[in-house]
Amino acid sequence: MGTFGFLRMGTLTLALGASVSGALALDPTAKTSAMEPLIPSAQALAPQPAPSPVTAPMADALHLPPGVSSRLLSPALPAPAPAAASDAFRAGTRLYYEGDRKLAIEQLRRAAESGHPIAQWKLGRIYQTGDGVPVNDAKAFDFYNQVANNHADDSPGSPQAAFVASAFVALGTYYLKGIENTAVRPNVDKAREIYTYAASYFGDADAQFNLGRLYLESDSGERDPKQAARWLRVAARKGHGGAQALLGQLLFTGDEDVPRRPAQGLMWLTIARANAHGTSDDWIRDAQEQAFSVASEPERRQGVAQAQDWIAKSGNP
């Protein structure tokens, strides 16, 4: 168990801190102490007829203050999900792959209601993507919220840690855009702090990439290219294609407090291109081609050689 920050703000207290194969089978591409909700509950997600000064207040943003709470030095391990929840989760997994989304969702919901975190995460993903159901971002938010509120201080080495981190990333992304007709309004600061927690404590590469991207955006309020480079580099070394490409662009062009390193930038762009698949990665291919076209011949040779060496050593483009 790692160490955590512990913060009390008004009435809000924040603690920061089934089988795995069955969980991964639901999504092959996927990578507690008592506390009040980290993110608003389902009631806060009810459609809002109009902004009103009497609307229930949203929970304060997630913070990472210095210091460690003595209460969190030796926390009890979270209780395992009841056997009935694990059975329902396994049944939902089987039905999901048999193509019966309706019955799968019923079983997963039974597991989620009993506190099964991976079932909650999977339901969030189902409603977020419209996997057999109409897209419903409010429901997706609520399921991700349950995971984050109840498992924020789980060990990064726990079986469900990757799913908890993914839930935090999803919540951060919802706060970037907001959810129409709900109490979830766009809040860049809150999104950044949620990403920071998932990136720092759980070491989640998607959170690190999103955090780096936020630090590069001019309208984010806290633009910091040096911080962006730091987070992008951490995610890039884990094989995150988007982070590799964005870091490559940053190093190739240079920015405030980030000296221009064209060969190293081409290296990361070339690695990212080798990692690019599908139309969603067209921007990566375009970025690499654009940088390659304006680079000098020595920069090209050096960048490509470094990329080939990195791929050979890491085994991960």
From TrEMBL:
Q: Which Gene3D superfamilies match?
A: Tetratricopeptide repeat domain
Query: One Pfam family name from the record?
Result: Sel1
| Official protein name in the record | Sel1 repeat family protein
Q: Which UniProt keywords apply?
A: Signal
Instruction: Note down the stretches annotated as region Disordered.
Output: 294-317
**Which InterPro entries does the record match to this protein?**
Sel1-like, Sel1_AlgK, TPR-like_helical_dom_sf
Q: Which domain of life is it from?
A: Bacteria
Where in the sequence is the signal peptide annotated? 1-25
